[in-house]
Amino acid sequence: MNNKILAVDFGEARTGAAVSDATMTIAGDAWVIQCKNIEETAQKVAKEAASRGVFRIVVGLPKNMDGSIGSRAERSTEFAEILRSICDIEVVLWDERMTTISAGRILKDAGKFGKKRKKTIDAVAASIILESYLGSLR
């Protein structure tokens, strides 16, 4: 039985991903996919999800602060639709307002700046999305 959840912080150039542990309690491995093509990124995410025994993919939905849907949220919705069309894994959208800002603060507090920060911020944002989603399941 597949019992892991994969969270995705979709981006135009870099997409963060984080997978839960088998008990769906905490975020485990996190990484960044470097890709500028939405379909190719979706293929890479689907492949990772299948190889890691994932039963659900949670795609961050970056709503505006007032709750409205802007261009970034529309692009994330398009990404989720592509994922749904290419894999047999459930795909859900999850409100991810402020996750990149939170990830930036975490990295700043850890002393990560410049290129080191840029390389990891999307993976940290995906971990935050995953932790938020896992918390909602409890």
CATH architecture: 2-Layer Sandwich
Termini distance? 20 Å
What does the overall shape look like?
Answer: globular
CATH level-3 fold name:
Nucleotidyltransferase, domain 5
Order of helices and strands: EEEHEHEHH
Number-wise, the strands total 5
Taken as a percent bin, the fraction of beta residues is 25-35%
Supply the number of helical segments. 4
The structural class is alpha/beta
Strand order of the largest sheet: 3-2-1-4-5
**Total discrete domains:** 1
> How large, in whole angstroms, is the Cα Rg?
14 Å
What number is the mean pLDDT?
A: 88
The CATH superfamily is identified as YqgF/RNase H-like domain
CATH class label:
Alpha Beta
Fraction of residues in H or I helices: 40-55%
Offer a concise description of the structure.
With 138 residues, the chain is of the alpha/beta class. It has helices at residues 38-51, 71-86, 99-109, 114-137, and strands spanning 4-9, 14-20, 27-34, 54-61, 90-95.
Which key terms come to mind for this protein?
about 140 residues; alpha/beta; Nucleotidyltransferase, domain 5; 5-stranded mixed β-sheet; 4 helices; about 45% helix
Question: Mind explaining what this structure looks like?
Answer:
Strands 3-2-1-4-5 form a five-stranded mixed beta sheet, with helices on both faces. It has a single domain (4-137), classed as Nucleotidyltransferase, domain 5 (2-Layer Sandwich). The protein is 47% helix and 25% strand. It is built from four helices and five strands. Helix 1 crosses helix 2 and helix 3 (99-109) packs across helix 4. It has helices at 38-51, 71-86, 99-109, 114-137; strands at residues 4-9, 14-20, 27-34, 54-61, 90-95.
